[in-house]
Write a structure and sequence with these properties.
Structural class: alpha/beta
Radius of gyration: 24 Å
CATH architecture of the largest domain: 3-Layer(aba) Sandwich
Helix content: 25-40%
CATH topology of the largest domain: Rossmann fold
Number of domains: 2
Length: about 260
């Protein structure tokens, strides 16, 4: 702030500030002078609002210089053009605080309505990322997956198509790992249903295809990120106790891949 009004920022001045307000080790990114452009941003932004865009142009280089590796002043920064979608807050518990996060509620209809409303509001969106848990339909599946295909498993698409009503019940997603996710409003928690779905898919959830469907309608790419929380059998009923570990993995992925 002093340099903005023409005062030369000497080491003595900086040392005085550091004596009164020491920098915490966790926040000590780079040398102390590296933070000067960061602290100029707020007054320049305020002046841009009150006194014209010239101040905004002067603030832009400082902002660009402070954003390195997805952080400003050591704080994780996510692209606001990425819409992060989660059915529940418990699944998104560990995502960065500044994420553009949409909590939709559980199920296909809730997810479709919430994402459509968000996109229709007009905020620029270049990518949708749906994070959440999934049930494993095969015993060897564990960990985090990025499905390449998502199908809607509980719609009678063959019968409807036979009557002359074409139905889209499958969406391909770029950048996936080759797995197939099955989405439906049924909470799969019995071996018979699991076995039937395992013929068509690797994982099962309750929102993925709805997010993919809306993304396709708006021509916005969608990424599905699913962490296995259970085996889609009777143990799936313990989901409330299992979700926290999965949420930590999802938070770690968001920080690593989207920052």
């Amino acid at each position: 702030m002093l340099e903005l009004v023409g005062v030369r920022l000497s080491d003595d001045i900086l040392d005085g500030y550091l004596t009164e307000f020491p920098i915490r080790p966790a926040a000590a990114i780079g040398c102390r002078r590296d933070r000067v452009p960061l602290h100029r941003l707020h007054p320049r932004a305020v002046h841009a609002v009150g006194h014209g865009p010239g101040y905004g142009h002067r603030a832009r280089p400082g902002c660009a210089g402070q954003r390195r590796n997805g952080s400003i002043g050591g704080v994780t920064v996510l692209d606001p053009g990425i819409l992060l979608v989660s059915a529940t807050r418990s699944e998104a518990r560990y995502v960065p605080d500044d994420a553009r996060l949409l909590i939709t509620g559980i199920g296909k209809v809730a997810a479709a309505v919430a994402v459509t409303r968000e996109l229709a509001a007009g905020a620029p969106t270049r990518r949708i990322v749906n994070i959440g848990t999934a049930g494993a339909l095969h015993d060897h599946h564990a960990g985090l997956f990025l499905p390449s295909t998502v199908i809607e498993h509980d719609i009678s698409s063959e019968a409807l198509q036979a009557m002359g009503y074409p139905v889209v019940d499958s969406w391909n997603l770029d950048g996936g790992d080759g797995t197939v996710l099955a989405t439906g409003d049924t909470f799969v928690a019995d071996p018979v249903h699991r076995q039937a779905l395992a013929v068509r898919a690797d994982l099962v959830d309750m929102e993925g295809c709805a997010v993919a469907h809306v993304g396709a309608a708006f021509e916005i790419p969608v990424t599905l990120v699913k962490v296995v929380s259970d085996s889609a059998d009777e143990k799936a009923l313990d989901w409330p106790q299992l979700v926290d570990r999965a949420a930590r993995d999802l938070g770690d992925w968001v920080r690593a891949e989207l920052s």
